[in-house]
Specification:
Layout: E1 3-7, E2 16-20, E3 30-35, H1 73-76, E4 77-81, H2 82-91, E5 96-100, H3 108-116, E6 122-127, H4 135-138, E7 143-146, H5 157-160, H6 163-170, E8 175-181, H7 184-197, E9 204-208, H8 213-230, E10 233-234, H9 238-243
Parallel strand pairs: 3-5, 5-6, 6-7, 7-8, 8-9, 9-10
Antiparallel strand pairs: 1-4, 2-3
């Protein structure tokens, strides 16, 4: 059976845990999270850089991040048999599964095997929107939380904002779009992407960038008006208010 490559929790075990969804349309819903390792993008403000910014990577210089910290791969990445992952998920007793990362859709084959062992789960996939799931996996996904990366992420647009991918998710009723926003310039960029790619306005969420409650609240004050102006929705980051910027929450 295939294996998944996961991030680790604070104890060095696979990051599989029960909590409540902190973002997007399912905010507050009880669920189980599985956090996979590896990503094809590199966001300057990423709060899970331990899933992709490793010591000694082939990238020279290392992919940029504002904290300029790299992580030991052995301590922050673990492989787990699909059956073992499924058993751990089932043992937590939740009926909603959030597959996050990193970029989960880099591991589509093992993920399809995992979900075939969990047929009764409601499944959300958190993705940066640069790739798609093959049919074997896609048929088992109930919701895509697509988070395209804006210019302030530090990613080149040709890598992060692929027109055919955006349009594919735009016509999929299971997909919602969650944009990380730090300034009013970012909102202007979102509005242009909505226009250029016919993204459904009622499925657009603006989420403040930040890893502490004060930063989130400060940005939400002006983001509320931006949502009113454009007809977008506002997403908080509930887990930050509850637990801080910590693993396994």
């Amino acid at each position: 059976m295939a294996q998944l490559t996961l991030a680790t929790d604070d104890d060095g075990g696979p990051e599989i845990f029960a909590s409540v969804q902190g973002e997007g349309p399912s905010i507050g819903a009880p669920c189980t999270f599985i956090r996979l390792s590896r990503c094809n993008l590199a966001c300057m403000w990423c709060d899970t850089a331990y899933t992709w910014r490793f010591d000694g990577d082939a990238h020279n210089p290392p992919r940029a991040h504002r904290d300029d910290v790299t992580f030991d791969r052995k301590a922050n990445q673990v492989t787990l048999a699909v059956a073992d992952a499924a058993a751990r998920i089932e043992s937590l007793g939740q009926r909603r599964l959030i597959i996050t990362g990193g970029e989960p859709l880099l591991q589509t084959g093992p993920l399809a095997e995992l979900l075939e062992l969990l047929p009764d789960m409601t499944v959300e996939v958190e993705t940066n929107g640069t790739t798609t799931a093959p049919p074997r996996l896609d048929i088992r996904i109930d919701q895509y939380n697509v988070s395209p990366k804006l210019a302030h992420s530090g990613n080149a647009a040709e890598l992060a904002l692929i027109p055919e991918r955006l349009r594919s998710y735009a016509i999929d009723p299971r997909a919602v779009f969650k944009f990380v926003v730090a300034s009013e310039t970012d909102v202007v960029e979102v509005a242009e992407l909505v226009r250029a790619h016919a993204l459904p306005r009622e499925r657009i969420y603006l989420m403040p960038e930040g890893t502490d409650s004060e930063s989130l609240r400060t940005r939400e004050k002006w983001l509320t008006q931006s949502c009113l102006d454009h007809g977008f929705r506002l997403s908080d980051r509930l887990h930050i208010h509850l637990f801080g910027d910590t693993r396994g929450t």
